[in-house]
Amino acid sequence: MVYVTSPLAVGVFVAFVLGVLLLSWWLGRGAQSASGYYAAHGQIHWFVNGIAFAGDYLSAASFLGICGMIAFYGYDGFLYSIGYLAGWIVALFVVAEPLKRMGKFTFADALDARFHSRGIKLAAALSTLVVSLFYLIPQMVGAGVLIKPLLGFSHAAGVLIVGVVVTIIVVTAGMVSTTWVQFIKGGLLVAFCLLLTGLILRRGFEVPPHLPVTPLATDVIERQGRVVVDPDWPSDAWLQVQLPSGVIHSYRRLPGGLARLTQVVTTGRGPVLVDGLPQGTGANAHDLTPVGAVAALPGGARATGSLGPIAFLRTFNASTIETWTSERRVLKDGAVATVHTPRTQTGADLLQPGASPTFKGVRSSALFDKLDFLSLMLALFAGTASLPHILIRYYTVRDVMAVRKSTVTGIGAIGLFYVLTLYLGLGAMTSGALDVTNTNMAAPLLARSFSEPLFAVISAIAFTTVLGTVSGLILAASGAVVHDLLTNVWRMDLTDDAKVRAGKWVAVAVGIVAMLLGIAFENLNVSFLVGWAFNVAASANLPSLVMLLFWKRTTKQGIVAAIIVGMVSSLAWILSSAQAFKDVYGWAPETAPVPFSQPGIVTIPLGFLVLIVVSLLTPKPVDRSA
Amino acid sequence: MHTPRIALWLFGAYLLVYVGFMALAAFAPGVMAATPLAGLPVSILYGLLLIGLAFVLAALYVRVAR
Question: How many domains does chain B have?
């Protein structure tokens, strides 16, 4: 869809970003030492840290990706919500406290507290870098996706803006201001999602009068304009009619002399064509019609009026919804037509797992197809506690009690947000405002269906969401390089000042790499990439974290081997999966060597196995605490 | 660097509930589609339960552990 840039949206957006920058500079002006730069002196209040957890964790993929996925496929998006939240249980009950007691600034510190081994520091720092970069890619791509419709810039410009602003935030102030940016954004995100949910419930459901999914008789269609004869669209399956405006409506023929209207986007013939005319607004141009509607309500009602939170879900479950499918057709001259076709699905079906391409294996009868689903749910559960940018936040508060309290606050805020995503997604699905070509825009477009200022504010919050997460990731990567690699692996003797300076240079370098990756990976699916990052994090970090805490026989060789094997095997699996073949290299997905695309169910146990075998083969560690 | 025992018990309890969810979704779609309470399907009820339970267990832990 063409998005008209409104001066209001731009104004709100610029005010937001400037406000955040100013605030971060003002709050961070006191951070001079290394402990201030990386861990905010351990003096952040637990409540602030808890909401900052939410700000850190609810990335662009959570907000835009999950809402979009629910809006297009229903329950499958909510599966991500459930898995992402459940992961916090692992973080709180298993890894947080020992990590807090053992570490100083980074995850490598904690892993290495017992052994003082350069090998462990090197392996842990490498895995921190790899996971942070992997997690940065979808955030940067998300930034580009957001900027394009909002401000009318190109994808690359969006990525550059985010990269520059974030690098400024990180370089000027470090962890103190990063924490406050995340606090503000986490709080705003939850507050505005609550507001939106209230508006959705007040609006209820309504069946619009003319739905594209309703079939029309072919003789009625033929009277609307001139019937087009085109060998690309054989007349036994298609009926095309050109209206006086020049628009060509393509109808898919159904049995019984009926046909159903589709929307056709054609690329590869110069400008993008929508239903035969260049995409745009005004004369001699045409744009996609916004979609998403209830086709029938229970009892044949036309509208429900306002609904309570439970009645909303119950009514949805008993309704019929118009959803859209897409199909690619290669035309004779090499151009590609994407045909978007409406269909009806029952609400009950949309509230069950397996309606989306990502999770469709769960409905298959073959066990192998189900493994993909089980593997992703396992990776989401185990991945949270292994994300370096989440782990560093355990060093910003004073003691173990503050760790617990801030985690509970975080779980509360994040859990509330994930419950709201269900309402936002289903609300967007029935809002009549969706862009059929772009799932990521569902939440902002839902806001616009209520009011323009709300759209501006939600978009600005989504953008600060990207800023918050990206700055946390860059800081984690910078800590890994300076603290773990320079000081502890290469034994460079740096003063406190030099550490902070080096950290800032590394932050700039990581920022530049992230921008380049964000531009290069423009066409990758954002939420899918995040799932992969969780797989890598869990495979590389979780086995050594858990075994170190609960098995005394663990040796340093075992830890190093588990990190390296977990990281390399999960990366290799992902890079040779059918999804990577199709979306990254453009090769035939059937030729991929691995059977399913989510490695976690294989590579997480593999990491544990390698750790146990290598530990048993190497000499017992000397017990230093005795 | 020991973790309070209660934390591991709470973790085990949650893990069971989570594995139960994965098993139902993968192997018992009929159960997931049933509507036992307030006209809502088990899929939604169980999902909301997992989110609510995480908060309840975490809050309980802060009260109990020292």
Answer: 1
